[in-house]
Design goal:
alpha/beta
Length: 115
């Protein structure tokens, strides 16, 4: 139901949403909401389609909050590599990836654009 209304929300900049199918919503936001900079979607099960939709539809995203969700190990890597303007990434208390992973730690260290 939400994807139908997104085309009317052209000035949408911030979206805080509960558990949902992000891969259905994010492409629509990318098409219609050109000022979109913040997504807060805590406690979601983030799958491959969700991460692809996020990175492909929103390269300009500056703030991303996925805390408390399920996020497999390769997805934080894809997020860190995919967003050049990302200022804030919150993956606290996510299940499914190791926050001590060498590749994630190295990407986070060299990603000076992330606070």
């Amino acid at each position: 139901m939400i994807p139908k209304f997104i085309s009317k929300l052209k000035i949408l900049e911030i979206l805080k949403i509960g558990q949902c199918y992000l891969n259905e919503i994010l492409p629509q936001i990318g098409l219609h909401c050109h000022n979109f900079i913040l997504l807060s979607a805590p406690y979601n099960n983030i799958g491959k389609d969700d991460v692809s939709a996020l990175v492909d539809s929103h390269p300009e995203l500056m703030y991303l909050d996925l805390h408390g969700g399920v996020l497999e190990n390769e997805y934080p890597v894809k997020i860190l590599k995919g967003f050049k303007q990302l200022f804030h990434l919150d993956v606290r208390n996510c299940k499914g990836f190791d926050d001590d992973d060498d590749e994630i730690l190295e990407l986070a260290r060299v990603a000076s654009h992330i606070q």
